[in-house]
Amino acid sequence: xxxxxxxxxxxxxxxxxxxxxxxxxxxxxxxxxxxxxxxxxxxxxxxxxxxxxxxxxxxxxxxxxxxxxxxxxxxxxxxxxxxxxxxxxxxxxxxxxxxxxxxxxxxxxxxxxxxxxxxxxxxxxxxxxxxxxxxxxxxxxxxxxxxxxxxxxxxxxxxxxxxxxxxxxxxxxxxxxxxxxxxxxxxxxxxxxxxxxxxxxxxxxxxxxxxxxxxxxxxxxxxxxxxxxxxxxxxxxxxxxxxxxxxxxxxxxxxxxxxxxxxxxxxxxxxxxxxxxxxxxxxxxxxxxxxxxxxxxxxxxxxxxxxxxxxxxxxxxxxxxxxxxxxxxxxxxxxxxxxxxxxxxxxxxxxxxxxxxxxxxxxxxxxxxxxxxxxxxxxxxxxxxxxxxxxxxxxxxxxxxxxxxxxxxxxxxxxxxxxxxxxxxxxxxxxxxxxxxxxxxxxxxxxxxxxxxxxxxxxxxxxxxxxxxxxxxxxxxxxxxxxxxxxxxxxxxxxxxxxxxxxxxxxxxxxxxxxxxxxx
Length: 520
Fold this sequence. Notes:
The chain is mainly β. It is built from 2 helices and 20 strands. The chain has helices at about 480-485, 490-500; strands at about 5-30, 40-55, 60-75, 80-95, 105-120, 125-145, 155-180, 190-205, 210-225, 230-245, 255-270, 280-305, 310-335, 345-365, 365-380, 390-400, 410-425, 430-455, 465-475, 510-520.
């Protein structure tokens, strides 16, 4: 029959499912009337912005936009670069068996392919492939029997290694800055494109808060104010820091913070001399934080009442535990050689880079990461009728990252970011590219535990008289005093006392033990 035991609630996060999907987007873009005709598309860049993620049973509804910036040249002989902006709507459903609407879902998006073709001098055709990865987590609560006063029961205690979530928070930062271009740089006519990204990220847990420090890089491509259409570039580093407050965070907490640029704008203003040299920057940065403490909780793993029939109810739980985390920064130096079909270089312009991680292979105490850095280089050509050109190159990389304790069966997630990139011309057909890349990885392992949820006794009168009996038992490989005591319906204390054993951990196969049984 059931009895009242001291209880506690164990809260675990479990994997609810993982699903990858792809979205194919196709659409046409019409050049605005204020823009000249399109002769050649130089480059097309896109940014995925998800606006709504709705979780339901077995499905996730997502919606957003693919924002596009297209740089192009007009008629031949015109050395100017023009820009147009547009967007394509995103609507899709990700199906995931077993997903429940109260689960927490983290959605990762990747622009895997983007192509822009000239249909006619006023219309462009866009094809894009967007990769989606959804990770679902559920919060699982188990009411278990807690260690404590056993009331005549024998309890076997064990350690449950787990992660106790101490904070989950989303919060935004706003960075506002005025950038003044020096007199050595041309004044701004039109901003063709502007890229914002974060480098040198530092996250530090403190008592009751997390300090975040990073640099916001503002990288613009613009034409001068003289109406010549000549293209120039400028890059500025804006340091910023902030705090995320959460009462339970300590300096020992494990912190995972994902920083993304949510919205950004840049506006040209006049300086004291009336020249357009001031850039008014306004950027919203979204931080998504998860913090936890790695703990070991003492739990009851088995129980019995000497001399009585005992029924132990258990629940088997499977949950992930972080094994280790690692951060690796490395440099790529690559010689870029133009193909015979590409026009020779006269002057370097602007360089864009996109990082793609293609494969992550966990091994013993390390992981191997393979990926590619896709580079777009805008440069001035030596041909009068084709002044601005583009070179597109893919640079593969392979990195081994030490992660002590990792096994091939563990699940490893890796994210990378491009910290710095520079291109220098060596000759009219060769140049050297330098890139600094940061890889961050964490490894998780699925743990299995059996938790005692209830204990029932067939006869609650555990004070009844017992008849004594004795047996000589030979210890077998894998035996423990707990197993022996439970098998013979006695107690560990009685075995220790009768056999004059001081250290309960020191029994060995072949050892003879005198067991005084408790008979019903």
